[in-house]
Amino acid sequence: MAPWNAPLILATRALATPLACGNTVILKGAELSPAAQGLIIDALDAAGFPPGVVNYLTCAPEDAPALVESLIAHPAVRRVNFTGSTPVGRIIARTCGQYLKPAVLELGGKAPLLVLDDADIEQAAAGAVFGAFANAGQICMSTERIIVDNAVAEAFIPLLARRAAALPAALTGPVVDMNTIARCNALIDDALAKGARLLTGGKANDTHMSPTLLDGVTREMRLWREESFGPGESDYSRP
Predict the structure, then answer these.
(1) Which one of the listed residues 31, 62, 69, 106 is annotated catalytic?
(2) According to its UniProt record, which protein family does this protein belong to (predicted)?
(3) Separation CA 132–CA 134 (nearest Å)
(4) I want to staple 232 with a disulfide (CB 3.0 to 4.6 A). Which of 38, 177, 180, 212 is the partner?
């Protein structure tokens, strides 16, 4: 089961190892990128793969839970590989446990970047901007929080905000759908209501969200613990 955010790379990776080990494979395509992942199947067919070696299934989002459980439950399916969100990963893990199927899960996170007191702040800011906003933050290891030593915070945070604000829209791109915008907007609202400070960017009304930075995020805020999977990041300072 491969995701939509890097549909060709991640689907190809999921197929390569089991095929190299002599297995047949079912690729369950992402509901948001079925045509893109279908190109892989077209290429394998053109290369002469025998029928039934690589099988491709797609479905509407509302049909995904039933389809996935049917796949996991089927006796011909011996292993499960899933890349996607943590909430869906929990469901996959429970279902695999129910049917005693081994599973490999690559899920989301809240990836931190540390800026220490001996950092080259120009390089650190450049790395933070790339890590946070490449592909509009829609990468499972995107930088989600930036933890800055107080010794360099006064110089680093304004520099980071300027670099983020200067990013051309063409380099960040849109998010995948309005559900992402709704989630990011809600995280921003929650953080601001609880005392965070908006450094640049902000809420969006369409799928083009500006790179967004919030400072002073605390444990009481959803953004402290929830992955945005979009172009909204947070700064923390430490002694």
Answers:
(1) 106
(2) Belongs to the aldehyde dehydrogenase family.
(3) 6
(4) 212
